[in-house]
Amino acid sequence: MHLRNIRLWQHDHIFGQDKEQAGERRTIIVTVITFVMMVAEILSGIIFGSMALLADGLHMASHATALGINSFTYIYARRHSSDKGFNFGTGKVNTLGGFTGAILLGFFALFMVWESAKRMFAPVGIALNQAILVAVIGLVVNMVSVFILDTRNKGYHPHEHARDGDNSHHYSHDHNLQSAYLHVLADALTSVLAIVALLSAKYFGLIWMDPLMGIIGGIMVFRWSLRLLRTTSHVLLDKNGPEEIKQRIRERIEVDGDSKIFDLHLWSVGPNIYGAIVSVVACNPLEPEQYKKLIPGNLGLVHISVEVSKCKEGAGRVL
To answer: Residue 170 has what pLDDT?
Structure first.
């Protein structure tokens, strides 16, 4: 039989990546805010001769760079969404952005710990009033950025299980957005610790509190980066998707008692979207399309392949 309308069976692999993602605009806004604050601090440090201001400005520059990468990732994924060179679209570019951001976050944290440790043994003079002012302004800016990027304010519920007929619940984070969020949260944390340390130094003479808080903050930020690295690397290496989704697939396919899944691959192809290969054996098998229709449509599955095997004669019922 000659199939003239083969396009009826074909589909693209864009999976919505051509549309602006929920976190894209927010990340760009925060990137601009961070960049403006960075320029202001560096110029103020140069004009007023304050090393504290200049150092904080350079620290802000490192985060502006990371946030710039996060913003670029969103734009790149959207503009290249129809590139057929990507087997399953550009969804994993999002995760790659998160992975890169996590590495940078880890390096910044280690550098913070290293510099703080050196100052424990070789204290340097601190322009306390200027440093406190900068830390307070930085905290206000960072808290605004945290609020803009906070997924809890935008209706994301990454740990809730999807329900039939409800597509508003997701199984995973937007890793790129999470990376940007952790960068501004790290900045906010360091600002809080800096304010505590600087006030202690100013009113109680506890100069050593400044490097101590730097070490504590660096360790906490490094732990955040490790957590994000673990999550994003699992996606990039095609580690099995959420067990909840696999269980839902098994429940629906095996409901008749005759069909059994003997091989199931589930992996992430983008934020909250998955691909699946389902291998079924049955004594009275259905057509692959019939098995596909049994799978709930609200699990985030955008690419499903089903292969069906008939049990051998005399093998009896599939157990």
So the answer is: 41
